[in-house]
């Protein structure tokens, strides 16, 4: 069974930094692109970043470009999101999600499954 | 950038109703369109990928159609467990529609 377990969320002051982790199990991690999708309270979904299985190609939404960095450690089956210069508008539940296509050359086809999410609150 | 527009943003329906949700892309996206269901406090769940392929384990009352710019998610006979919010998503770059909340009439 595929499992994705996010961690690292919490309350952080504006301008601060946080690193999210997503521990994956139940599949060949290095064969799949992975993504971070966030959902602000009461709002819709936004894919903020994605990375190919090898880590050689990444995607960032304009809203986080230059502030967030996605990475992965295929030896540890773990996905990361380093978030710097955090703003109030970054407050959201952050989900990691596995891509639906094995050995895909791009970062995102469809997301399946998703983790349970970790809440990031940016507030003073 | 490609924009994804869902309509309606919400709807009220009764058990057994046929429900149709529309997603429109701002430019042609072939069949690179996926649909998700999200219940309150839960992560989204994939229903349909590549516009019309039903994900394994998803009830057959769900179906997807369309290509190019206009896509449709249909629930043939609404069940109590279907009351949720539905999102469309384009693959490249990953872009979601605004969501459609399906509520009980």
Alpha-carbon distance between the termini of chain B? Answer: 36 Å
| Share of helix of chain A, binned | under 10%
* Chains forming the largest contact: A-B, 22 and 22 residues
Q: What Rg of chain B do the Cα atoms give?
A: 13 Å
Distance between the termini of chain A: 40 Å
Regarding quaternary structure, what we see is heterodimer
Q: Could you state the order of secondary-structure elements of chain B as H and E?
A: EEEEEEEEEEE
Q: Taking all residues together, what is the mean pLDDT of chain B?
A: 97
Residue share in β-strands of chain B: over 45%
Main sheet properties of chain B: 7 strands, mixed
Order of helices and strands of chain A: EEEEEEEEEEE
Number of helices of chain B: 0
Helical stretch count of chain A?
Answer: 0
Mean pLDDT of chain A: 97
User: What is the structural class of chain B?
Assistant: mainly beta
Low-confidence stretches of chain A: none
Instruction: Tell me the β content of chain A.
Output: over 45%
- Principal-axes shape call of chain B: globular
Q: Specify the biggest β-sheet of chain A.
A: 7 strands, mixed
Number of strands of chain B: 11
What is the CA-atom radius of gyration of chain A, in angstroms? 13 Å
């Amino acid at each position: 069974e595929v499992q994705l377990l996010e961690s690292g969320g919490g309350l952080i002051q504006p301008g601060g930094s946080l690193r999210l982790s997503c521990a994956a199990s139940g599949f060949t991690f290095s064969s799949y692109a992975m993504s971070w999708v966030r959902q602000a309270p009461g709002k819709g979904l936004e894919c903020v970043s994605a990375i190919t299985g090898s880590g050689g190609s990444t995607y960032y939404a304009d809203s986080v470009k230059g502030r967030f960095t996605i990475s992965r450690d295929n030896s540890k089956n773990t996905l990361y999101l380093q978030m710097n210069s955090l703003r109030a508008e970054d407050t959201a539940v952050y989900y990691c999600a596995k891509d639906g296509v094995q050995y895909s050359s791009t970062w995102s086809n469809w997301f399946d499954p998703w983790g349970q999410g970790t809440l990031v609150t940016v507030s003073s | 950038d490609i924009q994804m527009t869902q309509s309606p943003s919400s709807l009220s329906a009764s058990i057994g109703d046929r429900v149709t949700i529309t997603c429109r892309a701002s430019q042609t996206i072939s069949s690179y369109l996926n649909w998700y269901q999200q219940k309150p406090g839960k992560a989204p769940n994939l229903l349909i990928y590549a516009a019309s392929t039903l994900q394994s384990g998803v009830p057959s009352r769900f179906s997807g159609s369309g290509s190019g710019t206009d896509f449709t998610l249909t629930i043939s006979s609404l069940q109590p467990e279907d009351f949720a919010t539905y999102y469309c998503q384009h693959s490249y770059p990953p872009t979601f529609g605004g969501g459609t909340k399906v509520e009980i009439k």
